[in-house]
From TrEMBL:
Organism encoding this protein: Labeo rohita (Indian major carp)
Cellular localization per UniProt: Golgi apparatus membrane
Membrane topology classification: Single-pass type II membrane protein
GO cellular component, one term: Golgi membrane
Keywords: Glycoprotein, Glycosyltransferase, Golgi apparatus, Membrane, Signal-anchor, Transferase, Transmembrane, Transmembrane helix
Protein known as: Hexosyltransferase
Record lineage: Eukaryota, Metazoa, Chordata, Craniata, Vertebrata
Pathway membership: Protein modification
Keyword Endoplasmic reticulum: no
Pfam families listed in its UniProt record: Galactosyl_T
Recorded family membership: Belongs to the glycosyltransferase 31 family.
InterPro entries: Glyco_trans_31
Record-listed E.C. numbers: 2.4.1.-
Length: 241
């Protein structure tokens, strides 16, 4: 299955250097020090977006004594010389910020689910005790201080609950129109109804929910719509806040 790609980073990026593996979360044993881990989906060419995020809401810092950390998750873009050029630029960028996780697969809309599952595998190995995750795109704005305060106010805020918070979408199904970006053929998804899920622009996950999704990904075939797949693998029933 495709998600069995090695977690070694293309062109010696980030993850194959032991000091980088340990830096982001302080190593697996110290990863509980990370209160909120920002997991931001990005493509190699989106440097301008990442630069804005470093300087604004995705800045690594403490708030009310709680650490906010950041990783960008990416595949590869283009082919030939252009692919090599982008990878070299990404490697330079990462040498300064040490916040890019990259795998050698084509970074496209229909590979977002693969990107999510590979990140969860990395987290399970290198950052297993981070308490909460914000999973989002590189073109959103998020108030991470409000998130920290919201999560601090929850009962049992150690990340051990099976909780998934975001814009709830339910009672919808696969789009069968071939002209649509979200087209899913019957051969991929037979059911005409998706399970409830949170929209993929941004959602909060307790670490227990992230581990549950990762464990379920070993037995649930990948669906190309990543937010639907995350809802499917979480096996959660919606409640309204």
């Amino acid at each position: 299955m495709e998600q069995q790609l090695q977690l070694d980073f293309l062109n010696s990026f980030y993850n194959n250097k032991p000091e980088h593996r340990l830096t982001k979360c302080g190593g697996p044993q110290n990863s509980a020090d990370v209160f909120l881990l920002l997991v931001i989906k990005s493509s190699p060419e989106n440097y301008d977006r990442r630069e804005v995020l470093w300087k604004t809401w995705a800045k690594e810092r403490q708030h009310k004594g709680m650490w906010i950390r950041r990783v960008f998750i990416s595949g590869t873009s283009r082919t030939g010389f252009e692919k090599r050029r982008l990878n070299k630029l990404l490697k330079i960028e990462n040498s300064e910020n040490k916040d890019i996780l990259q795998w050698d697969f084509h970074d496209s809309f229909f590979n977002l689910t693969l990107k999510q599952v590979l990140f969860l595998e990395w987290m399970d190995r290198w950052c297993p005790h981070a308490r909460f995750l914000l999973n989002g795109d590189d073109d959103i704005f998020a108030n991470t201080f409000n998130m920290v305060e919201y999560l601090q106010g929850q009962k049992g805020n150690d990340g051990s609950k099976h909780l998934f918070t975001g814009h709830l979408i339910q009672n919808v199904g696969p789009i069968r129109n071939r002209a649509s970006k979200y087209y899913v053929p019957v051969q991929v998804q037979e059911s005409e109804r998706y399970p409830p899920y949170c929209g993929g622009g941004g959602f909060l996950l307790y670490s227990f929910a992230a581990k549950t999704i990762y464990n379920m990904s070993h037995s649930i075939e990948l669906l190309p719509i990543d937010d639907v797949y995350m809802g499917m693998a979480s096996n959660l029933h919606p409640t309204m806040a």
